[in-house]
Amino acid sequence: MKNVEKYARGYFMPPETSLKWTQKEYMTEAPTWCSVDLRDGNQALIVPMNLEEKLEYFRMLVEIGFKEIEVGFPAASETEFVFLRTLIEQELIPDDVTIQVLTQSREHIIRKTFEALKGAKKAVVHLYNSTSVAQREQVFRKSKQEIIDIAVEGAKLLQRCAEETEGNFQFQYSPESFTGTEIDFALEVCNSVLGVWRPTADNPVIINLPATVSMSMPHVYASQIEYMSEHLNFREHVILSLHPHNDRGTGVADAELGVLAGAQRVEGTLFGNGERTGNVDIVTLALNLYSHGIDPKLNFENIPAIISVYERLTKMRVSERHPYGGELVFTAFSGSHQDAIAKGMKWREEKAPGTWSVPYLLIDPKDIGREYEGDIIRINSQSGKGGIGYVLQLKYGLDLPAKMRENFGYFVKNVSDHRQKELMPDEIYDIFQKEYVNIQTPVEFIKYRSTDHEDFQTIVTIRTGNEVKEIEGAGNGRLDAISNALQTSLSISYTDLIYKEHALETGSKSQAVSYIGITASDGSLYWGCGIDVDIMISSVKALFSAVNQFIRIKNSSS
């Protein structure tokens, strides 16, 4: 990078050490969540939502469980104004939900905002003005005192307008661009506003400290928050709020550490939608809490449905690797990962533990509406026997023996490699059916019958090509007798029958599935599977399938 020397750290450390937050290990409860999707999120869209879309999005936020929702900047446009009036006049705001509106510290904007708020049952009026060095010097060209005066005059006007307007109002102040502001000056501005509002237990106010532009590592932001928390006037009556953006990719970390440092409230959006790199993602924050066994107070039990509405209304896309919501975030393609997950899931079935601890899966995908089938283990050329076996067992009830899983795994990986594509579960099942199940060429099983001899002498009817004939064999059981008949009549030799069977379904119409492996003289293992309503017939079909594998591969080699 050629121009690195033109950059310098633009943030300001607190004037004293503020590191008490480092002694905390984790968040113990959910903060108050405020969705700013309909303001920060909406203003960042290429095509902002229309009235009907905003109403639908608002309903979704209510269903998720947000108790505070910023609905817009009513003085900014007619759509914003009409949206707020529609919510109030049509009584669409539940009694336990507080709406929030944004206003600059300018008289005509504040008065227009209260005109839009008339009759609101409960609303937060969010006042802001920029305080950073860059904004003071380059945009407003004002002194520190002039910036304080803007904030104080706005705070006074909010009080007067609230007294003159029908409704129930709470105040919030943000020193916008807080992260680029000298911390002692940010404190002075906030305390000046608090001196006007003089919050009480019955009438607390919100001080919001936004990372309007993320400028530091998360621990710096946390130290800034802690310093402000410990030095704000009327602190016991102040709700300390965060509003992190994601310019450095640390929005979630900023929010989590900021809560450890004393913040009680977080403003953010679903999936981090917002200007530039976006706002902090409340979905990630909430489900991070959930993964620690802490109720996030938001309902994300059906993430796919939420994503569907979100993508349709915003025209934005949740990326495949987005935490929790992305299509691939629970997916393992790697063989070793798949094997560990499959074994972990089996262990859960056997042990029924009280807490979740499956390898590679932070939370149970089913808790947020994801499915084990197709979401967790997906198959490509990097996959392993454990994952391929898991897919067959989960979706089709086929519990292959370990060595057969290995044999089939290599076969499937080879198919995926040559096709250069992921294989869907139905494709894997089709491959298994074609290569292993009830194989009838070159030797077709027709029927068998046993004699009354003690050595289980058995007569088997088979078809090879156009010829139907009977062959005979004896052994220590029917299957052994049929195996011996095949070896004798076909002039082949194998040893070590590996056998496994289980019911494929439950109930009176259940089918049985059998797996048989045979070992050739060179040590090669060949597998077959038989499926039939009769357990003995399924075993015979599995044996014929293995023998046919043996013959076909032997003939192709020679």
Strand share of the residues? 15-25%
CATH class of the largest domain: Alpha Beta
- Count of runs of 4 or more consecutive helical residues: 18
Structural class: alpha/beta
**Contiguous runs where pLDDT drops below 50 for at least 5 residues:** none
How would a textbook summarize the main sheet?
Answer: 8 strands, parallel, barrel
**Helicity level, as a percent range?**
40-55%
Q: How far apart are the first and last residues' alpha carbons, in Å?
A: 61 Å
CATH superfamily label of the largest domain: Aldolase class I
Could you tell me the CATH topology label of the largest domain: TIM Barrel
- Could you tell me the mean pLDDT? 91
- Level-2 CATH architecture of the largest domain: Alpha-Beta Barrel
How would the global form be characterised? elongated
Strand adjacency order, main sheet: 1-2-3-4-5-6-7-8
Gyration radius from CA atoms, angstroms: 34 Å
Give the number of DSSP strands: 14
Q: How many discrete structural domains?
A: 3
